[in-house]
Amino acid sequence: MAQSKSVSAISDILLEEHQKTGNSEEDNNTNPETNRQEAYTVLSEKEKVFSIFIASLVTLLSPVSSDIYYPSLDLLSKDLHVSKTQMSLTITAFMVAQAVAPLLTASVSDLKGRRPVFASCLTIYVIVSVALALQSSFPALITLRCLQSLGSSGVSGISSATTADVITRAERGKYLVYTSLGFTIGPAIGPIIGGILVQYLGWRSIFWFLAILGGIILVLILGFLQETCRVIVGDGSVPPPRWNRPALALVRPKYRGSPNRQSLVTFQRRPGVFDSVRLAATKQFGFLILFSTFIMCGWNVILSCIPFLFESKYNFNALQVGLAFIPFAVGGLTARWTCGVWTDRNFKRHGRLAGVEIARNQQSRQMLLKIPLEKARIEIILPMAFLWFVWMIAYSWLMQYDVHVSVPLVVMFFLGNATAGTSNVLSMLIIDLHAHQPATAMAALNIVRYGGSAGAVAATLPLINAIGIGWTGTIFACMGLISSPTLWVVYTRGHDWRRSKENTEQE
């Protein structure tokens, strides 16, 4: 009954949103009463998909930069004369930088636009990747890897922000395949490319490859990607400054008619560097981020130990290690159908139960205040999280014993699906709840989960050496299971917290 009521509330909100302007993006400073019948964005479907796709290419850099490195760990430890445990510290350092980077870029992106941050971070990334290809010492490696992570991870959450700029909450599930493109494909192609390059060209070639890849994406950003930040362009009808437009007139946004400046998002207080930290400390975000962190820890524990486990147990070479990542990544890609489609359907189901019509490309602040977004998303997250727990333990104990290599590879497919599905919908909910500053919301998530993952990866090899991969995986899976009641707290209390906060801000 409670669930049905929540669903009804969601539907009511969606209908009101359809009747109101789709331009306010639930910002706490826009006027929801104006232009009620206007679309959320003036961009066509092709323009929306194109913008999301290019922005998602940027998210490819962080996972590829991380995962392309794994097949080279053994060779690097020999060439630089350091232990495997020391080499695992380079992974930890990379993840620490992943946690810090969004602090420096999120608020700037929400205030000044997506394109300037994309361009700045990618320029740094390309320069540092070249330096990595030329260095020959462990201190230089670990230092430059941190800087490379700053360049790639500083923009990792801005792709999701781009999606929030142009897509309503009722439709975000079906765009999951585009938004999460980098995070799902990266773990697949990164190790494969890394394995091929290391096997035939040596470890330096992986950094030359990353420099070229970063350069190509930088050109695409400067030449093709239009600004979507609602502070700058509103619903897309407000032209950005000329310096913040695509270089090629062929793809330059067409600004037809008069600009709808009422769709511009404004802030009562200027966004700051530590907004993400303050957001992560709030009770609703804190609960969601805590659970997401344990899922991410388990994800990175599995990925980081694949090279060592498959080399030692199955005598895989660098190329074969890279290929071993494919099932996990392909499973992640299929989350678009197992989670993305059902996320939108569940949202619409709530709408029908409430007697509310859900219209495409329309949403308003007042509608969203009525919808228990928390329930609509967590109803998808909980079953996927349970599957993650089951597959995490199954994979860990299969790797503990000498089973045929095909068995853990098959389980990795299902583990990848459950991991990506849980993580993606959690990220979607976090952006839903703070959509007027989506990059800041993602930064709050990344600060904690990447910081936690850094510690988890640092502890992985010592734990495996001490108690084995079976118990190591079980420990991380149980940490996720133990933290799952936080989702129930948000499920039952989250909507009330959100409405109470809104009422307080209006007083």
UniProtKB/TrEMBL annotation:
UniProt keywords, alphabetically: Glycoprotein, Membrane, Transmembrane, Transmembrane helix, Transport
Transmembrane region(s): 49-66, 86-105, 175-200, 206-225, 285-310, 316-339, 380-398, 410-431, 443-464, 470-491
Sample GO molecular function, one term: citrate transmembrane transporter activity
The keyword Transport appears for this protein: yes
Gene Ontology cellular component terms for the protein in this record: plasma membrane
Catalytic reaction(s) noted: citrate(in) = citrate(out)
Entry annotated with the keyword Glycoprotein: yes
Topology class, membrane: Multi-pass membrane protein
Gene3D superfamilies, A to Z: Multidrug resistance protein D
Main subcellular location of this protein, as a coarse class: membrane
Domain of life of the source: Eukaryota
Localisation per UniProt entry: Membrane
A Pfam family this chain is assigned to: MFS_1
InterPro entries named in the record: MFS (IPR011701), MFS_dom (IPR020846), MFS_trans_sf (IPR036259)
GO annotation terms (biological process): export across plasma membrane
Domain Major facilitator superfamily (MFS) profile: from-to ranges: 51-495
Family, per entry: Belongs to the major facilitator superfamily.
Function: Transmembrane transporter that exports citrate across the cell membrane.
Protein name: Citrate exporter 1
Source organism of the structure: Aspergillus bombycis
